[in-house]
Write a structure and sequence with these properties.
By secondary structure, the protein is an alpha+beta fold. It contains five helices and four strands; from the N terminus they run H-H-H-E-H-E-E-E-H. The chain has two domains: 47-137; 141-247, 2-Layer Sandwich (hypothetical protein PF0899 fold), CATH 3.30.2320. The chain has helices spanning 5-137, 150-158, 162-167, 185-199, 230-247; strands at residues 175-179, 205-209, 216-220, 225-229.
């Protein structure tokens, strides 16, 4: 076998030149491109990890904020419920107080109405009794309506204070008397004599007639008044009947 060393040497040189050209113009740019891509991929991966970490942090913050808001909302709900319960209790207490007040007021009004009605009924009954008594007393003869009442007037005047008695009929001023019927001159003289004796000084009398007295005499003066008549007795009796029935109601 014959080997052409020149040809082999040239082919070797060609191969080395080709390898150098490939390494120079093909392998190195490809390696640089691959390295760049690896670097970009590493940067993108780092960025992705950072973004993921940031997202995790934001998610943790969001979860913490959500938990805080939930706790705050729960506390707010509890506060609102407590306030609503307190307001409800206050309203119920106020309503109960108003109801109790209305019931008490109604009871008082009912009792007052009952007492007023009872008082009115008693007053009507007393008025009827007095009216019946007045009609019966009106049947007395005229002379019986005067005689016997002067002693009561004299007794009433005797009970007055000394200063009052001294002023009655003093300085010639007549004492005014009201009689249930016409007074005879003899009765007028008896009245004047009886009063003069009680008062200790002479007096004049001025007598008028008022049939509504039914029977009796009344003395009226600026200093005092003395009544001894059936009208005064019946009025006193009516007042006592009404007050007695009212007190027992």
């Amino acid at each position: 076998m014959h080997i052409d060393w020149w040809t082999l040497g040239l082919q070797t040189v060609n191969a080395l030149v080709l390898i150098w050209l490939l390494g120079r113009f093909l392998f190195q740019p490809v390696a640089d491109a691959i390295a760049g891509r690896q670097k970009e991929a590493a940067q993108m991966l780092a960025d992705a990890k950072a973004a993921k970490a940031a997202a995790e942090g934001e998610r943790t913050k969001a979860e913490a904020e959500a938990a805080r808001l939930a706790d705050h909302r729960a506390e707010a709900f509890k506060a609102v419920e407590a306030e609503a319960a307190a307001a409800k209790s206050a309203l119920l207490a106020k309503a109960q107080a108003e109801a109790d007040k209305l019931v008490a007021s109604a009871k008082v009004q009912i009792e007052n109405d009952r007492r007023a009605e009872a008082h009115a009924a008693d007053a009507r009954s007393a008025e009827l009794a007095v009216d019946i008594a007045a009609k019966l007393l009106n049947r007395l003869p005229p002379d019986a309506r005067i005689s016997g009442f002067m002693d009561g007037i004299a007794a009433g005047v005797r009970k007055l204070p000394e200063e009052t008695r001294a002023a009655l009929g003093a300085e010639g001023n007549p004492i005014r008397l009201t009689a249930a019927s016409t007074v005879s001159p003899a009765e007028e003289g008896a009245f004047r004599e009886s009063l003069s004796k009680v008062l200790g000084h002479a007096v004049a009398v001025d007598i008028s007639v008022d049939p509504t007295l039914i029977a009796g005499i009344e003395l009226a003066a600026p200093e005092a008044a003395v009544r001894n008549s059936f009208r005064a007795d019946l009025a006193r009796l009516q007042s006592e009947l009404v007050h007695h029935d009212t007190d027992n109601a």
